[in-house]
């Protein structure tokens, strides 16, 4: 393909990348926390405390203990308690009420955990990494592309406790979606765990789609006419942000497979089938991350190759001009010697003849380098 064709291709890639970015901003809806006001006096960390019976929300301003008492007395429904970055004192009463294991409670308070699913008696404790795409006009060597958070979920026979860490990952949309599907919500706390996992994995795929626009933008810049001048820090920063995304996605594969195939308390077989679908989506996200990593490696290698080629071209030009300059240097060096008997030294036209010979030789050498592409 000709140079003009390459430039047209790069221009079209940049145009497509710009259109993708505009479309992404246009379709992005604000992640508003749709959760309801706190119904428990346990502290500021409480986001919501709601009772569900037969998949429908129970009305009434009951605190947490009253809600649990009603559910356990009737043996119907479950309680969903939502917390956001609780302290040890704020979660202590909750841990006592639901008999939560101290190790799981410690993980829920301090966060920064690896995605996992653990069983403590009849209670499941799941850790999910949430991700959010950080909007920016252009990727730089210091751009933040992916922001991560965590959601911890305690699942029992009659309760779900969600503990969220981070500035994003609101569970309001998940709650609203479940309340719009009472039949699914009636399947119990495991249905809530599935909805949360499904929403988290869907966010992975959304972030990866937006991540691809950044990769396309950097790729177009690298293969542009002045691609060797692209800051390699932009590519490296994308690899760092992709690694952050990989830490959230890849370790989650095994826990989701356990939820899909291993008999666990509070997870009925009909819900395990839904987790198999989540596992498929998670596998797709992991494969896409691997593909992006390979693509970024290729882009980085191509950029380094371009830099090497540009340096070689510069060295060839420098070498060619040094060879041209060596011709008059040699002539002047010879005739600068203090000898009486030298060819044409005392001839009237010796000086202009020597200048003409030097100029002619320089021209010959210049044309030779020009013909070979060194200049």
UniProtKB/TrEMBL annotation:
Query: Which Pfam family, giving just one, matches this sequence?
Result: CorA
The membrane topology noted for this protein in its Swiss-Prot or TrEMBL record is: Multi-pass membrane protein
- What Gene Ontology cellular component terms go with this record? plasma membrane
Keywords assigned: Cell membrane, Ion transport, Magnesium, Membrane, Transmembrane, Transmembrane helix, Transport
Q: Where are the transmembrane segments?
A: 318-337, 349-369
Highest taxon above the source species? Bacteria
The subcellular localization recorded is:
Cell membrane
Q: What is the catalytic activity of this protein?
A: Mg(2+)(in) = Mg(2+)(out)
- One of the record's GO molecular function terms: magnesium ion binding
Q: Which Gene3D superfamilies does the record associate with it?
A: CorA soluble domain-like, Magnesium transport protein CorA, transmembrane region
Q: Is the Ribonucleoprotein keyword given for this protein?
A: no
Function as written in the Swiss-Prot or TrEMBL entry: Mediates influx of magnesium ions. Alternates between open and closed states. Activated by low cytoplasmic Mg(2+) levels. Inactive when cytoplasmic Mg(2+) levels are high.
**Family membership noted in the UniProt record:** Belongs to the CorA metal ion transporter (MIT) (TC 1.A.35) family.
What PANTHER family has UniProt attached to this entry? CORA FAMILY METAL ION TRANSPORTER (EUROFUNG) (PTHR46494:SF1)
This one is known as Magnesium and cobalt transport protein CorA
Q: Which organism is it from?
A: Streptomyces xanthii
Taxonomy, top ranks, is: Bacteria, Bacillati, Actinomycetota, Actinomycetes, Kitasatosporales
């Amino acid at each position: 393909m000709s140079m003009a064709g390459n430039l047209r291709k790069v221009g079209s890639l940049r145009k497509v990348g710009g259109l993708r970015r505009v479309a992404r901003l246009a379709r992005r809806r604000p992640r508003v926390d749709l959760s309801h006001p706190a119904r428990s006096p346990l502290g500021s960390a409480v986001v919501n405390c709601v009772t569900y019976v037969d998949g429908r929300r129970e009305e009434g301003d009951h605190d947490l203990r009253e809600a649990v008492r009603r559910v356990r007395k009737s043996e119907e429904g479950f309680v969903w308690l939502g917390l956001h970055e609780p302290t040890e004192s704020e979660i202590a009463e909750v841990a006592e009420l639901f008999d939560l294991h101290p190790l799981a409670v410690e993980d829920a308070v301090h966060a920064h955990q690896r995605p996992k699913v653990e069983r403590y008696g009849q209670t499941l404790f799941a850790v999910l990494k949430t991700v959010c795409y950080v909007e920016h006009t252009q990727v730089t060597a210091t751009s933040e592309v992916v922001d991560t958070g965590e959601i911890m979920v305690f699942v029992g026979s009659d309760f779900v406790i969600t503990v969220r860490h981070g500035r994003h990952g609101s569970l309001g949309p998940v709650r609203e979606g479940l309340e719009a599907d009472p039949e699914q919500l009636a399947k119990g706390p495991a249905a809530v765990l599935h909805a949360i996992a499904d929403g988290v994995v869907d966010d992975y795929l959304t972030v990866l789609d937006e991540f691809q626009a950044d990769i396309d933008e950097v790729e177009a810049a690298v293969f542009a006419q002045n691609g060797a001048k692209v800051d390699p820090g932009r590519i490296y920063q994308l690899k760092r942000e992709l690694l952050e995304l990989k830490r959230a996605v890849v370790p989650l594969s095994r826990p989701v497979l356990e939820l899909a195939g291993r008999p666990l308390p509070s997870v009925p077989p009909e819900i395990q089938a839904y987790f198999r679908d989540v596992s498929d989506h998670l596998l797709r996200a992991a494969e896409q991350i691997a593909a992006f990593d390979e693509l970024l490696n290729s882009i980085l290698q191509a950029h380094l190759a371009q830099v090497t080629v540009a340096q070689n071209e510069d060295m060839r030009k420098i070498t060619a001009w040094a060879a041209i300059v060596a011709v008059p240097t040699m002539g002047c060096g010879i005739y600068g010697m203090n000898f009486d008997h030298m060819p044409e030294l005392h001839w009237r036209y010796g000086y202009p003849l020597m200048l003409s010979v030097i100029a002619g030789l320089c021209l010959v050498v210049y044309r030779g380098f020009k013909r070979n592409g060194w200049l």
